[in-house]
């Protein structure tokens, strides 16, 4: 009895990287909450999407997780730690805009996280980034400045910078939201091909249903306002996935299920 | 290629040059025909002659003296102004305490206050530098402060999530973003510096273009006075252009114009 309980606890410890419990948030100036009663668990190596209508507080949720905002109630626990300050610098965060510094080259932009910590030698950091640029198909753009890049290229560079920001958990806030449909499709293909080798855990905001199904292991539907909680949908599609999986009947069935749930909770 | 750039130059500066020429001709002929007495308004040709006649004194002594006051006052106001602007940005209580003072200091008519500097510093270089400093200080502080706080909320948050501290955010994000605003403040303040130096020299002294122009006005030598005023204005324009050039070099180095 005792032994099995111990093993169970151990499993939880190893796999749950982020745990959110009964999280509430209201802006200091207003009485109506942005969201209430959010709970979720993110396990190591998972790709989890959060879907919700505009203004339901998805970005606010991410800022709380990243440690930029303090919740009004509830807890965010990252690897057993619950203080907001301890999360800053330990979760990689990619906001909606690319936020590349226009006065730095692609390489220097990617070196920014290293400059803030200087944990390794510069040569080592440069080598690591060169390797990643190469793998991301960006090696020719090393000395280019962000204004010279296309929208998709900027997002790839911003993604790379997020990747080297440290921390296994990445928060991606609608990274492809500003891209046109064709570029977006290209980015999905690119990300799916890379995904297996990165070994990262991703929490992903989107309001594109296909994108969420294509990339995620699980999807949370967020209500926002005073309607509490999250709904969970497990995406049982095999990995590695091809970007063409969206023609698969299983995929289409999941999409229907997702839309039905959104409809039922008056999100659609 | 050369022809089109010539055309472009004509389109850009043609109307202005034409107007200047027209005004100069009108002015010259009004004085030549005796419509305006020469001691009230000297002819442009007389001003040029005065410039040529006194060029050694004007350029060798007075221009150098004024330039020295301007540069000293400017450098001091840039150093202390940007430090104060940065300090106000980094420490809220400092901003709350000092910002009203800065605004109030601008409502004091500087010319009325300037004689006190003569009491403090005597007829030395430093009484003029003090006036220059006071005129140039405010635009530097405000442009530094505004430049630092204007944009970059999202950048700021991004750097915090990368584990940056307050000073790293300042160095990596806020200062580079503040550069355009900082330079527009410098351009404004360097022109004010010339005005400040002129006021300082009016109060008393023995050299400088302001001193020279006032003495000549006292002697009813308007052509000489205008020659000094012309040089003061040229000095202001030249300094403005130097700052502009510095700004462009700096921006280009940082890839802003690519």
Automatic annotation (TrEMBL), chain B:
Taxonomic lineage is: Bacteria, Bacillati, Bacillota, Bacilli, Bacillales
The membrane topology of this protein is: Multi-pass membrane protein
In terms of one coarse class, where is the protein primarily found? membrane
What's any GO biological process attached to this entry? transmembrane transport
Which Gene3D superfamilies does the UniProt entry name for this protein?
A: MetI-like
Identify the residues that the record assigns to the ABC transmembrane type-1 domain, covering every copy. Answer: 63-247
In its UniProt entry, the species of origin is given as Paenibacillus albidus
| Sequence similarity | Belongs to the binding-protein-dependent transport system permease family.
This one is known as ABC transporter permease
Concerning InterPro entries, the annotation shows:
MetI-like, MetI-like_sf
Which cellular component appears as one GO term in the record?
Answer: plasma membrane
């Amino acid at each position: 009895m005792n032994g099995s309980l111990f093993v169970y606890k151990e499993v939880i410890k190893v796999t749950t990287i982020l745990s959110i419990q009964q999280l509430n948030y209201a802006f200091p100036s207003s009485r109506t909450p942005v969201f209430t009663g959010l709970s979720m668990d993110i396990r190591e190596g998972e790709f989890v999407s959060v879907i919700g209508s505009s203004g339901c507080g998805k970005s606010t949720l991410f800022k709380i997780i990243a440690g930029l905002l303090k919740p009004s109630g509830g807890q965010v626990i990252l690897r057993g730690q619950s203080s907001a300050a301890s999360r800053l610098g330990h979760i990689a965060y990619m906001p909606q805009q690319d936020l590349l510094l226009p006065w730095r080259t692609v390489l220097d932009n990617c070196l920014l996280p290293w400059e803030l910590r200087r944990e390794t030698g510069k040569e080592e950091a440069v080598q690591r980034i060169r390797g990643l640029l190469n793998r991301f198909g960006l090696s020719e753009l090393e000395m280019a400045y962000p204004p010279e890049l296309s929208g998709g290229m900027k997002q790839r560079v911003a993604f790379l910078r997020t990747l080297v920001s440290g921390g296994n958990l990445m928060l991606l806030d609608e990274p492809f939201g500003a891209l046109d449909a064709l570029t977006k499709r290209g980015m999905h293909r690119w990300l799916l091909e890379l995904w297996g080798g990165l070994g990262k855990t991703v929490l992903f905001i989107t309001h594109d249903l296909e994108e969420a199904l294509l990339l995620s292991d699980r999807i949370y539907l967020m209500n926002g306002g005073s309607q509490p909680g999250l709904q969970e949908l497990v995406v049982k599609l095999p990995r590695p996935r091809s970007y063409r999986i969206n023609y698969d009947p299983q995929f289409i069935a999941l999409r229907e299920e997702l839309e039905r749930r959104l409809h039922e909770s008056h999100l659609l | 290629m050369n022809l089109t750039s010539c055309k472009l130059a004509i389109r850009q500066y043609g109307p202005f040059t034409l107007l200047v020429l027209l005004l100069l001709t009108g002015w010259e002929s009004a004085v030549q025909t005796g419509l305006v007495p020469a001691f009230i308004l000297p002819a442009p040709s007389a001003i040029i002659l005065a410039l040529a006649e006194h060029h050694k004194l004007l350029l060798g002594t007075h221009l150098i003296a004024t330039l020295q006051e301007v540069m000293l006052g400017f450098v001091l106001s840039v150093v202390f102004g940007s430090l104060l602007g940065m300090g106000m940005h980094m420490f809220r209580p400092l901003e709350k305490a000092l910002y009203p003072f800065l605004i109030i200091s601008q409502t004091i008519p500087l010319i009325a206050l300037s004689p006190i500097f003569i009491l403090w510093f005597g007829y030395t270089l430093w009484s003029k530098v003090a006036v220059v400093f006071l005129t140039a200080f405010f635009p530097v502080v405000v442009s530094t402060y505004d430049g630092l706080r204007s944009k970059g909320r999202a950048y700021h948050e991004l750097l915090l999530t990368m584990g940056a501290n307050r000073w790293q955010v300042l160095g990596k994000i806020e200062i580079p973003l503040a550069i355009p605003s900082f330079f527009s403040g410098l351009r404004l303040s360097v022109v004010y510096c010339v005005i400040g130096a002129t006021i300082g020299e009016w109060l008393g002294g023995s050299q400088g273009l302001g001193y020279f122009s006032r003495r000549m006005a006292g002697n009813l030598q308007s052509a000489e006075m205008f020659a000094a005023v012309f040089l003061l204005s040229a000095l202001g324009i030249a300094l403005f252009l130097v700052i502009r050039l510095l700004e462009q070099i700096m921006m280009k180095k940082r890839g802003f114009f690519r």
